[in-house]
C-alpha cells in the first residue's frame, strides 16, 4: 500500500487528495484558491465563531515564543485576511517590516486594511522574494492547504536570512477518540450551521467542513517535524502551550547561521 505522505513524483502533500472537494492532486490548488476567494467576506466572522483558543492573544504569544522581536523583517505566508500579521505588527511596532503572501486575491483584499505592510500574490512552493530576504517567517493555519510540503519548507528556508526564525501554527487532529469526535462535531457540524444562520454564503459552510477534513487527514506532527529538519531547519520542535488547547501546535525552527537580531 502506498503511503500518501511519502514522496510521489517528488511531491509531498500534507494529506491525500480529498475527492469530496476536488478530483485529483492536480486540482487541489485551484480548488483551494477558489473556495477562499469565494468565502473571503465571511472568513473573519466565522473564524471568530471557531475561536478554539486561536485568537489574537494566543497568536501573539506564539510569535513571541518563536523569537519574533522588533527590528526583524517578517514574512506571513498564507496571510489570508491578515489575522496573524496584525499580531506580528503589534510586536514589530513597524508595519513596513511586515510582508504578506497569499494565492487568494479575495482574501488579501480584506488584509489591505493593514497600514503599511506589503501584500503580494504568491504561493508557498514559489515564494516571490530573493534568497535571505527575511528574519522571521510564519504560517498561520495554512499548512494543510499547501500542495507540496517539501517544496514549501525549502522555500521557507531559502528566503530566511542566516539564523532566521520559523513559526508554523496548526490545528492537529486530537489523539483521543472522544476529543476528536467533539472537535469534529464542532468544526464540521456546528460552525457550518452557525455560518448559515449568520447569513454567510453557502460556500462558507462548505469551507469549514473542508477545514475539518484537512485536519483529520493531515500528516502527523512527527512527519512535519522530520520534513522541516530535512529542509535544513535546526532546533525543530513542536510546542504545545498548556494554557491553550492541546491540539494547537506551534512548529518552531531556525535557519543555520548567526542572526543579526539575536
Automatic annotation (TrEMBL):
InterPro entries linked: Methyltransf_Superfamily, SAM-dependent_MTases_sf, UbiE/COQ5_MeTrFase, UbiE/COQ5_MeTrFase_CS
Domain of life per record: Bacteria
One GO term of the biological process aspect: ubiquinone biosynthetic process
Alphabetic keyword roster: Menaquinone biosynthesis, Methyltransferase, S-adenosyl-L-methionine, Transferase, Ubiquinone biosynthesis
Molecular function per GO: methyltransferase activity
Alphabetical list of Pfam families matching this protein: Ubie_methyltran (PF01209)
The keyword Methyltransferase is assigned to this record: yes
Protein name: Class I SAM-dependent methyltransferase
Amino acid at each position: 500500500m502506498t503511503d500518501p505522505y511519502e514522496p510521489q513524483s517528488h511531491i509531498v502533500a500534507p494529506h491525500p487528495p480529498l475527492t469530496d472537494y476536488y478530483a485529483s492532486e492536480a486540482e487541489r490548488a485551484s480548488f483551494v484558491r477558489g473556495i477562499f476567494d469565494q468565502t473571503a467576506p465571511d472568513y473573519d466572522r466565522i473564524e471568530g465563531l471557531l475561536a478554539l483558543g486561536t485568537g489574537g492573544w494566543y497568536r501573539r504569544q506564539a510569535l513571541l515564543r518563536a523569537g519574533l522581536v522588533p527590528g526583524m523583517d517578517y514574512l506571513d505566508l498564507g496571510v489570508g485576511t491578515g489575522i496573524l500579521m496584525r499580531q506580528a505588527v503589534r510586536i514589530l511596532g513597524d508595519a513596513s517590516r511586515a510582508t504578506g503572501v497569499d494565492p487568494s486575491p479575495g482574501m488579501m483584499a480584506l488584509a489591505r486594511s493593514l497600514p503599511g505592510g506589503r501584500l503580494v500574490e504568491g504561493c508557498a512552493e514559489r515564494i516571490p522574494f530573493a534568497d535571505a530576504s527575511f528574519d522571521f517567517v510564519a504560517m498561520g493555519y495554512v499548512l494543510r492547504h499547501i500542495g507540496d510540503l517539501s517544496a514549501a519548507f525549502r522555500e521557507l528556508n531559502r528566503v530566511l536570512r542566516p539564523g532566521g526564525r520559523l513559526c508554523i501554527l496548526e490545528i492537529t487532529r486530537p489523539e483521543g477518540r472522544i476529543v476528536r469526535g467533539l472537535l469534529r462535531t464542532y468544526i464540521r457540524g456546528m460552525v457550518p450551521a452557525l455560518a448559515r444562520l449568520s447569513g454567510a454564503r453557502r460556500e462558507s459552510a462548505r469551507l469549514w467542513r473542508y477545514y475539518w477534513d484537512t485536519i483529520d487527514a493531515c500528516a502527523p506532527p512527527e512527519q512535519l517535524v522530520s520534513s522541516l529538519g530535512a529542509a535544513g531547519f535546526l532546533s525543530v520542535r513542536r510546542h504545545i502551550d498548556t494554557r491553550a488547547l492541546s491540539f494547537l501546535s506551534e512548529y518552531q525552527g531556525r535557519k543555520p547561521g548567526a542572526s543579526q537580531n539575536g
